[in-house]
Write a structure and sequence with these properties.
Two copies of one chain form a homodimer.
Chain A: H1 38-45, H2 49-57, H3 64-77, H4 83-90, E1 95-100, H5 109-121, E2 125-130, H6 138-147, E3 152-156, H7 162-171, E4 175-178, E5 188-191, H8 194-207, E6 213-218, H9 221-236, E7 248-251, H10 257-270, E8 276-279, H11 282-294, E9 304-306, E10 323-325, H12 328-343, E11 352-354, E12 358-360
Parallel strand pairs in A: 1-2, 1-3, 3-4, 4-5, 5-11, 6-7, 6-8, 8-9
Antiparallel strand pairs in A: 10-12
Helix pairs in contact in A: 1-2, 1-3, 2-3, 5-12, 6-7, 8-9, 10-11
Chain A binds a DNA duplex through helix 2 and helix 4.
Keywords (chains A, B): DNA-binding, Transcription, Transcription regulation
Domain HTH lacI-type (chains A, B): 36-90
GO molecular function (chains A, B): DNA-binding transcription factor activity; transcription cis-regulatory region binding
DNA sequence: GTGAAAGCGCTAACAG
DNA sequence: CTGTTAGCGCTTTCAC
C-alpha cells in the first residue's frame, strides 16, 4: 500500500538557511511546468507559502507589511495562481457548468450571457456545454461536467433521461434547472409555465375577437406544451370546434424565419380564412409576417400574429410584434445567485421560483 | 448531503489483507470531498491506482483481465475521474478558453457553437469569457483564464491592450486569434480582411451602377475598418466626390434592427437621393429594409442594401438580402484543430490562415 | 504489463 | 498573525 508521505529529512526546514536547497527540483523526479508558483512568490517575499496564499486570498488575515511584500513579489514575478491546484486542495473549483440545447439561435443567449457575466463578477468561470435537441449526447456531456467538479450546474431546457438526473443528483453538485417548471426538480428550479403561456395567449386572442386560429411551433417538448395548452384553451373558449384538431404546423428546432414563411403558406392552403397565428418563436412570427406581407395579407387587420421570446428586434418590426416576454436576464441572475449562495453555505429558502411571463401587446395582434 | 464515500471496509482488499493501513484517512488531517476516487476503484479491482489509471487512459497498455476488472469497478462505484487532479498532475487541463465580445447577438454564435462541439468531441471543455466591447475587463478575464491553465485560448475580435497580449504570450498557452487578420498575431490566426470586404462591396455596388452610397455601421474597430475601406474605394471608383466625407451613420455594438431603421431615417434626411447602403450587420440591413418599406422606397430599385454576416434569416427576407458571408463554422473548426494539434505536439505549419469571405448576391442589391 | 515512489501547486488543519 | 505538516486525486518517472 503506497504511503506517499514525504519523510521530513527530505525537506530541509524552511525557516533556517537551506543553501542550495532553494532549488525546487529534488532528485530526478518530476519536471515542473516552468511557471511561477506560490512557492517562488513566498520565497521572494521571505514568507512561508501559506502566508503568501493568505495574503492573496484573505488579505485581512496578514500584516500590512507582509501583504505589501507579497504583492510586490507577485508583481515582480508575474505570478498567476493555479486554480486547478487551488481547486483540488480546497475542493472548490469556482467553475459552473452551463448546459443549453444550443447557443445557435437567440433563445438562450440572454441566459448564457447573464450567467457568464454574473458568475464572472463573483469569481466563477462558466463552462459551456451543448446538449443538442436530442438526448443522445447527455451522458458524455455529464461525465465531462462532473469530472471537473464544478461548484454548480445550470441546466436550461434539458436533461431528460432519468439516469442522467440521478447521476447528477448523486454527484452532490448544486443543480439549477431553468426554462421550465418541471414537476420533479433535481435540486433548484427557476422557470415558468409553458402551459400557462399557451392558455394566456389563447385568451388574449379570444378577447380580441379572433375566431380562426392556428399555430406554428417547434417540435421540441416545451414548445409542444405551449401549443397544446393553447389549443385546449381555444377549444374551451369556443374559438375552435372540438371536432377537428386545431391547425398546427410543426417545425424542427431551432426555429427559423424561413420555417415561419413556409408555415403560413401551408396553413393558408388548408384554411384560407385564418385570422390569428401563435408562433413558438419571434423568428417564426417574423417569417409569418413577411409571408403575409408578400401575399398582401394585412397584419393585424386580416391576420393577428403572436410570437414568443420578445427578441430585441421585435419591437422595431412593422407592425411591431406582439409577443410573450420571458425575463432571461432575471432567470440567469437568480440561477447564479442560487449557486453562489449555495457555495457560500447559505441554504436557499425558495428552491423553486416561477418567474412568470408577460404578453407584450403591440401592433401585430 | 449524503456522504457517499465508501470506507475501505466496504471494499474488501482484493490482493492481500493489509490491516488498517488501507484506510485512506490518517490522523485527523483532511476531510475528503466525499467522492469515489481512483484509489477506491483500484482497490476494488485489486490493482494499484496507477494500473487503474492506465486502464482508463491507455487501455491498450494493460492486460484484458485487468481492464475488465477495472471497468467493472468503475461501473459498480460510479467513479468519475477528477479532471482537476488529473490536470494538475499531467499539466494538461483539457480546457480551452473561448473569448468573445458578447454572446448576445448572432455574430459570434457560429464560432462558439462550433468550438464547443468540435472541442467536446476531442475531449475538451470550453470555458466561456465575454470581454465586452470595451477593453476594461480584459485584465480580470485574462487572469481568470490563465489561472485555469487552459490548453488553449481562442480570442475572437478582441484583446487590444499590448499588456494583455504580452501576458498571454508569456503564459505559454497556445493562442488562436480569429475574426480578423491582425498584422502581428500573438501566436496563431484564423481570420479574414475587413478592409478587403469593404473594398469588394464598394466594387460590387459600383458594377451595379450605384452612385450615391452611404453606410450604417457599428463603432467597434473591425466594423470601422470595413467601413473606411469601403468609403475609400468608393472615392477611388468615382462613386463619391472626395470633398465631403461619405455619409456614415455610426451605431453602438451590438447592432440592432432599430438602429438600422433610425440609421436610414437620418441618412435620408441629409441625403434624400441615396441609392445604396452598406450595413455592418444583417440586422442593421433588415432595419434599413423595414424602414425603407414603411416609407415606400423600393428595394432594390430605388435603394440597394448590403448586409454583413449572412444570418440564417437573410435568405428568406423579402427581398432576399445581399450580404457578406463569413464562414464561422470553418473558422471554429480550424481554430479547434490548431489547438488540438498543438496539444498533441504537432507543430502547425500554417500559423496564419485567411479564410476569406464571399458576397452572396441576392435580391436586395 | 505492473507497481512504488514522488510529486503537480495549492490549501485545511492545527499549532504556536 | 505566521508557520508546519499533511494531503486534495491524479500521473510521471523509474524500476521490475
Amino acid at each position: 500500500m503506497s504511503e506517499n508521505r514525504l519523510s521530513s529529512s527530505e525537506f530541509p526546514a524552511a525557516s533556517h538557511q537551506d543553501g542550495d536547497a532553494a532549488s525546487p527540483r529534488r532528485r530526478g523526479s518530476r519536471k515542473s511546468a516552468g511557471g511561477v508558483t506560490l512557492r517562488d512568490v513566498a520565497q521572494l517575499a521571505g514568507v512561508a507559502p501559506i502566508t503568501a496564499s493568505r495574503a492573496l486570498n484573505t488579505p485581512s488575515a496578514v500584516s500590512p507589511k507582509v501583504l505589501q511584500k507579497v504583492r510586490e513579489a507577485v508583481e515582480k514575478t508575474g505570478y498567476v495562481p493555479n486554480l486547478l491546484a487551488g481547486g483540488l486542495a480546497s475542493n472548490k473549483s469556482r467553475l459552473v457548468a452551463v448546459v443549453v440545447p444550443t447557443v445557435i439561435g437567440p433563445v438562450f443567449q440572454e441566459i448564457v450571457h447573464t450567467l457568464t457575466e454574473t458568475l464572472a463578477a463573483a469569481g466563477y468561470q462558466v463552462m459551456l456545454g451543448q446538449s443538442g435537441y436530442e438526448n443522445s449526447r447527455e451522458d458524455a456531456l455529464l461525465e465531462a461536467i462532473i469530472g471537473r467538479r464544478p461548484d454548480g450546474v445550470v441546466l436550461t431546457g434539458i436533461m431528460r433521461s432519468a439516469e442522467a438526473r440521478k447521476r447528477l443528483l448523486a454527484s452532490g453538485i448544486p443543480v439549477v434547472e431553468t426554462w421550465d417548471l418541471t414537476p420533479t426538480p433535481i435540486d433548484m428550479l427557476v422557470g415558468f409555465s409553458h402551459e400557462a403561456i399557451g392558455r394566456e395567449v389563447a385568451r388574449y386572442l379570444h378577447q380580441r375577437g379572433r375566431k380562426k386560429v392556428a399555430v406554428v411551433g417547434g417540435r421540441d417538448e416545451r414548445s409542444q406544451r405551449r401549443m397544446n395548452a393553447f389549443a385546449q384553451e381555444c377549444v374551451a373558449l369556443g374559438m375552435h370546434e372540438g371536432r377537428a384538431p386545431l391547425p398546427m404546423h410543426h417545425v424542427t428546432a431551432p426555429t427559423t424565419l424561413g420555417q415561419g414563411r413556409q408555415g403560413l403558406a401551408e396553413l393558408l392552403q388548408a384554411q384560407p380564412d385564418l385570422d390569428a397565428i401563435f408562433c413558438s418563436s419571434d423568428l417564426l412570427a417574423l417569417g409569418v409576417m413577411i409571408e403575409a406581407q408578400s401575399r398582401g395579407i394585412a397584419i393585424p387587420e386580416q391576420l393577428a400574429v403572436v410570437g414568443f421570446g420578445d427578441l430585441e428586434f421585435s419591437r422595431d418590426l412593422q407592425p411591431r410584434l406582439t409577443t410573450v416576454r420571458i425575463d432571461g436576464t432575471g432567470i440567469g441572475q437568480r440561477a447564479a445567485r442560487f449557486i453562489i449562495d449555495r457555495a457560500a453555505g447559505i441554504e436557499v429558502a425558495e428552491r423553486v421560483v416561477d418567474v412568470g411571463f408577460s404578453i407584450i401587446a403591440r401592433d401585430s395582434a
